[in-house]
Amino acid sequence: MTIKTIIAAIALENDEQQLARRAIRLATDHGAKLVLAHAIESLPESDPNLPPPAKKEAISNVLESEAFASLKQMAESAAVQAEIEVECGKADQFIERLIRDHAADLLVIGPGKPQNRREKIFGSTADRVVRAGLCPIVVVKRVTDDPYQRVIAAIDFSPMSFAAAQAATQIAPSAKIELIHAFEIPLTFEQAMLKVGTSQAELDRYRQAKAQSAYVELHSIRADLAVAGKIRVVRGDPTTALVRLARSGKADLVALGIQGKNAISQLILGSVARRVLAASSCDVLLSGGAISRD
Fold first, then answer.
1. 177 and 242 share a domain?
2. Residue 264: its pLDDT value, please?
3. What's the pLDDT at 45?
4. Is the pTM of this model over 0.90?
5. Segment 42-70, tens digit of pLDDT
6. Distance of CA 197 to CAs 123, 186, 209, Å?
């Protein structure tokens, strides 16, 4: 994956200067074209009682002009080619169309905040764009735009997690990348093993075998990725382990694979990704693509 085009979806109402700086940093590092985009969703429905000067089209023109000027000011600090896109309409639909039209390799976006009851149920713009999985997405949480130096890639041995790890190596080629796998043997399953006559020693050997198998697979993935980073196997709930790591301050970027192509994940962002996004103090890279290691 070569990063040639980056789209930065900027919610001007959230004062996302930091997001713009991160996008500019990434575009500069990769020599990529940068598209700064903003969607205006706050227009009211047509109101026949509006006085003549305040018709919807006139208001739209003013808002678009102001947004364009704000994005242009952000783009002035970019040392790369930058385009500006502003549109009135649904932000997620606008962003998805831009990704397709520009054949974007990376989307940079903020975590988003639910603005109403519907968004609290079905997710913010960030949630909906992430679920579409059209390209890797960096969700900006950090307050600095320093280059990524420490990356954690969560590996569950799915093609999606491999794709996320591979995207991380492209986005942050100079960073130290640690591959982490968390596994959990359900307590009820362990209790059932003991009840059918499995000894504690045999159960311990089973746990060790699971961990050793994961180590072997992580070594193989590290070789496929051609990185020299560390590998770690953690026993316990994967979500809890990743949230703890994302909040620890030991990483600049956490990479996760997500599934965005089935009906369920179109409605609800995976619980692991959602919890990591909510709790993380570092940026989060999400990839919904699937890459075969064969």
1. yes
2. 35
3. 62
4. no
5. 665 666 666 666 666 777 888 889 999 99
6. 47, 17, 19
- CA–CA gap between residue 146 and residue 235 (Å, rounded): 32
> Strands across the sheet with 5-9, in order?
82-88, 33-40, 5-9, 106-109, 137-139, 283-287, 253-257, 150-154, 176-183, 231-235
Residues 125 and 225 occupy one common structural domain = no
User: What is the tally of structural domains in the chain?
Assistant: 2
Show the low-confidence residues of the chain (pLDDT under 70): 1, 42-56, 112-124, 126-127, 259-271, 289-294
Same domain, residue pair 151 and 293: yes
> Which range of residues forms the domain containing residue 180?
147-294
Look at residue 120 in the predicted model and tell me its pLDDT. Answer: 42
Residue 219 and residue 290 in one domain: yes
Phi, psi angles (nearest 5°) of residue 284:
-125, 130
Question: To which H or E segment does residue 280 belong?
Answer: none
Q: What is the CATH number of the domain that holds 19?
A: 3.40.50.620
Alpha helices, H only, the chain: 17-30, 56-75, 91-101, 117-122, 125-132, 159-171, 187-195, 200-225, 238-246, 263-267, 271-279
Specify the amino acid at residue 260: G
Question: Is 167 in the same domain as 76?
Answer: no
| Domain closes at, from 140, 161, 196 | 140
Q: Which two tokens stand for residue 251?
A: 């990483």
Angle between helices 159-171 and 200-225 (to 10 degrees): 50
Do 173 and 102 sit in the same domain of this protein? no
Confidence at residue 263, expressed as pLDDT on a 0 to 100 scale: 36
The answer to whether 176 and 202 have CB atoms below 8 angstroms apart is: no
